[in-house]
Each structure stands twice: as C-alpha cells, then as structure tokens.
Design brief:
By secondary structure, the chain is an alpha/beta fold. Helices cover 31% and strands 20% of the residues. Helix 3 packs parallel to helix 4 and helix 4 runs parallel beside helix 5. The radius of gyration is 18 Å and the shape is globular.
C-alpha cells in the first residue's frame, strides 16, 4: 500500500507514517529486523537507557493479566556510551526515524546522559521521567510539575536533539505535569507510560514481583491512556505522541483523533510481532476509504 497519505512531521523529522515502536518493547530493532521490514515503520524508540547501564530487576519480570501484562524489567540496558557506539548506528541503518529513550536515577545522570547522546546519530531524544520499575529516579521526577519541569529544563539546556518528554499516568494530575514540561522547554510530549499495578502469587502468599509493584500495559489501559492524551493535547501547544494499549488501526485512529501527532505501539508487539505493519496498512485503508489526502486531516477532531 502507498504510505504517502500517512507521512507525518514530528519535530522536524518526516516520518513515513505515524506509527513508532515504543521504548522497551522493540529493543534496538535487531530481533524484529529478522522478522519483517522495519523500514516500513515511522520510527523506533530504543530501549530505555541509563548512564552506566543496568542488569535490570531480579526475579519475575513479566506476568500476564486480563487484556494486558505487568512488567518489572527495571531498565535493563547497555548504557549510553555503548548505545552511541553500537546501537545507534545499527538503528540508523534500519531506514526509519531513530529515537533514544533516556532514563536516570538523578538529575546529574540525565544531564550527563544527554551530553553523551549529543554525539549519537539520532533524530529525537525521549526523556523518560515515568518508568515505574526502578527503585530510585525515573517516575519520581514525573510525579509533580515542579520536579518534571526542573529535569526537563536542565536537560534541554544541554541537549542538541529535539526533546520529547515521556510522562507517567500515575501523577496526581498528568496534564499539569505536561504543561510544566512545555513551559520548561520540552519540544514534544509522549504519554502515557505504564500504570502502576500489582500481582500476588496466592500459592506462595507473596507479591509476584520483587519490587512489589509493576507497570501495567496492554489493551486494558487504552481508555485511560486515551483520556489523558485527549486532555493533554487540548491544553498544550507542542506535539503529543500517544500510547497505551494500542492494538489495531482503530485504536491508533482514536489517539490521532484525540490530538496525538503520532502513536507508539508497545505490548502488542509481543502478542503479534507484525502488529505495527497491520496498523500502518489499516491507517492507509482508512485514508483511502475516507478520501483523505493525509492522515493529519483527522488529527484532534474530537
């Protein structure tokens, strides 16, 4: 199918379509590149990085839930320096937009990580202040407007690449956090990350995860994520990238109609590795059937 009607501009980058692989669900593209032509995607958001790398959490890391999954991976990653040297060049070779996702345990970690990523061949830096699966940092920065604005402002001061801030749905008021990040200089926002959840092993009489709580994703969270994206897109002036439980083209259309510039697809990649291709084809069919010159014509119509 002709993807031209799906061409989308995001922070000066022309995406072939508005479908991006979400961080943490696609690695750096190596495994999926063996399964299908990943150059058809709009972009890939790489695995969440920390300054010095991490082995991730111990114990159980993933468990299935009704219409979703809980994960407690803990930002397992090779570190920023190795990403710049090894993974970023590979991602660039895949033929779609490259987004690096940066987490941190402290503001200084974020700043130094951003400095190192200035040397990476990437298109966009996604600042992850929303991961619920680490014991210190990450989500804590995204829970209040003040802390979110502070880390956004300080990273923006050193970052060479356009800055997209990834927000948590677990903040008391995610829209206020979104507004604070915009005020602090964010170029775009991506939302939402996973919802904080829990699983209990009734036979062992203990939490399933060593960290007790974990991140809930999948189709079960879509109505909640869609509501937050809709609210945020109505309030901020910068682009919003929506995610949360997208499993088909109709889901993606909901986020685009709610005001998202593009979407990220995560958990569904595990259930169906070709899910994003199906979504892209479905969006192209929608444009054809509805006589749209470009998918942007339905953006924010709700």
């Amino acid at each position: 199918m002709n993807d031209k009607p799906l061409e989308t501009e995001l922070l000066g980058v022309t995406l072939k379509n508005p479908v991006i692989a979400a961080s943490g669900t696609f690695g750096f593209g190596r495994e999926y590149a063996e399964l299908f032509d990943v150059s058809r995607l709009g972009g890939i958001c790489g695995k969440g990085l920390t300054l010095d790398g991490s082995a991730g959490n111990r114990g159980v890391r993933v468990t299935e839930t009704p219409a979703g999954m809980l994960n407690s991976i803990g930002l397992e990653n090779p570190g920023v320096a190795r990403f710049v040297a090894e993974e970023a060049p590979f991602m660039r070779s895949l033929g779609c937009a490259v987004i690096a996702n940066l987490g941190g345990h402290s503001v200084s970690d974020y700043i130094e990580g951003a400095r190192l990523l200035n040397d990476a061949d990437i298109d966009i830096l996604e600042l992850n202040i929303s991961c619920p699966n680490v014991r210190a940092g990450s989500m804590a920065f995204g829970l209040s407007p003040g802390s979110a604005a502070d880390v956004t402002r300080r990273v923006k001061e050193v970052a060479r690449h356009p800055l997209m801030v990834k927000l948590t749905p677990n903040a008391p008021d995610p829209v206020e956090v979104a507004l604070a990040c915009e005020q602090a200089g964010a170029d775009a926002l991506s939302l939402v990350n996973t919802f904080l959840g829990m699983a209990i092993d009734v036979d062992k009489k203990r939490p399933v995860f060593d960290n007790v709580y974990a991140g809930l994703s999948g189709p079960a969270v879509m109505p909640l994520a869609l509501r937050i994206v809709h609210q945020a897109a109505k309030r901020v002036k910068i682009p919003v990238v929506g995610m949360g439980g997208i499993s088909c083209a109709r889901d993606a259309l909901c986020f685009l109609m709610a005001g998202a510039r593009a979407v990220q697809v995560g958990s569904m990649n595990f259930a169906n590795p070709r899910a994003m291709l199906d979504i892209i084809d479905g969006l192209a069919r929608y444009c054809e059937e509805n006589h749209l010159e470009n998918i942007r014509e339905i953006r924010g119509i709700v």
